[in-house]
Known about the structure:
Blueprint lengths: L1 E7 L8 E4 L9 H4 L8 E6 L5 H16 L19 E9 L2 E10 L4 E8 L2 E7 L2 E4 L7 E3 L10 H9 L5 H11 L2 E4 L4 E4 L7 H8 L2 H9 L4 E6 L1 E3 L4 E3 L7 E6 L5 E3 L5 H16 L5 E5 L7 H14 L4 E5 L16 E6 L5 E5 L11 H6 L13
Parallel strand pairs: 3-18, 3-19, 10-17, 17-18
Antiparallel strand pairs: 1-2, 1-4, 4-5, 5-6, 6-7, 7-8, 8-9, 10-11, 12-15, 13-14, 15-16, 19-20
Amino acid sequence: MLSKIILNNFKSFKNKTEIDFTKTNYRFLTDTNVSDNGIIKGCLFVGANASGKSNIILAIKLLLDLLFKEREINSGLFLCLFSKENDFSIDYYFSVEESKIRYFIKHNPSRGLICETLYLDDKIILERIGTNAKSYINGEKEMIYDENDLSKDTLFLRTLYFNTKFAGNNILKAWFDFLQNSIYIDAFEKNVISYGKEDIGLSNYLKSNGTKDINRFFDKYKFNQNINYSKEDKNHKITIQIGKDEEKMIFFRRKGIDAPIPFNEESLGNRTLLNVLPAFLTLVNKEGMLLVDEFSSGFHNELEELLIRYFMRESNSSQILFVSHSTNLLSTSIMRPDQIYSVNFNGSEGSWVKRFSDEQPRMAQNMEKMYLSGVFEGLPGYNED
C-alpha cells in the first residue's frame, strides 16, 4: 500500500510537499477504513478549482504510466512552470507485507537526466544516474549497467522488471503486483485505465465477467434496476436489436417498468456509475490503488457516500485516492480526519496541503461545517462585492 508521497517542484507543487497515508491516533472507523498495517484505505482531496488536487493523483498515475504504459519522461509538463528550478522529484513510499519500499525519481527535462533510487527496508537495491546504474536485486551481488542497457527517457526500474521479473525477490514481485492491479478513472471524461492484463473498461469487463456481479451489487443495495448485456432486448411493444457483426449492447431494466433503456439513453449518473463499478468491484477483491479524478461527476450525494463506504468496508489492502467537490463526504461517519487533505494554491508559492487531522476535530464535530467555515483551509476566495 502507498504510505506516503513527497512532491518537489512537480506541476503546481513548487515547494517540497509531503502527503502521508498512515493513520493517526483516531479510534473510530479503524476496522473499516484502516488496513491491518496501519495505512488508511482511502484519501479524499478537497479544495478550490485549480488548486492542485488533480496533480496529486497525476503524480501517482505518472509512476504507473512510466512502469506499465511505455511512457517516456520526455516532457517539461511535469516541471513547475513558475519555479527557477530545472528538475522535479517524486518520492514514493510503500508498505508491502512486512517490508518498506521507497522509490525516488528525479528528472531534469532540459538535460534529459533521470535519477532513480530504490530502497528495500532502508537498503539501496537500485541506483541510477543518467545512463549509469547498479542494482542489488539478486542479493549482495552488484550488477553494473551503462548506456547500452539504459534508455535516457525510460525508467530503469521498468527495464529491470521486464528483464528479470524480480526473480528471487518476492517482496518486489508483490509490490509490482499491487501496482499493476491499480486503476485510474477520470469520472468526468469517462476514461478508465487499467495497468494489468485485465481491462476494466466497461465493455471488456462485461465481455469477460458478464453482468452477474454488477446486478448483485444493484440488488444488494436496492437500486431497483438491473442491466442486460446482449444483442437484443424487448418488451410487449418494441424490440431493440443490433446487427450480427456488432458488439453486444447494454440495456438498463428498471424494476416495475417493462421497457429496455439503452445505455446511451440513460442518465449521466447511471452511465458514470456503470463505468466506475467494474473498478470498485475488482479492487475490493484485489490489492491495488483506485485513483479517481472528479469522483462527484453526475452522482447524487447518497450514491457517493454508498460507494466510499462500500470500498472501505469490503476492501482489505486496497486504497482509493480521489478528488471530489462534494462536501457531504466530509463526515466522520464516512471518513476519518486523517483521510482528508485540503489543497490550497498560493500564487507564486504554488500548491500546499493541510490534513484535517492537524486540527484534531472530534468525532462528534461536523467536519463539513468546519471546512466551509475555513477551519481546514482549501476554500475558494471568491468575492461577490
